[in-house]
Fold:
Amino acid sequence: MYRALIVEDEDLMREYLATRLTDICPDWEAAATASDGVEAVEILAHDHFDAVLTDIRMPGMSGLELARIIRRTDPELPILILSGYDEFEYARASMRL
Structure:
């Protein structure tokens, strides 16, 4: 089973993604969750994941900044950036990462 780190500042969405990931993608499990990018960096320093699912806008550290940090340490780790925003610049920035 593949292990994912879920990074989302909204409690309900974080819990939803964590509990439903395996239902949506049977080969995947939410191995850990973080409420922001700062917490995610700490978790990533001590554990291995097959992918990171992160919100784009969060207090403390955004999903884009988290992706930049991940790319410096693990350029091959898949990152899925989630957003409820329709601003094109977010999409452009996330695609570069």
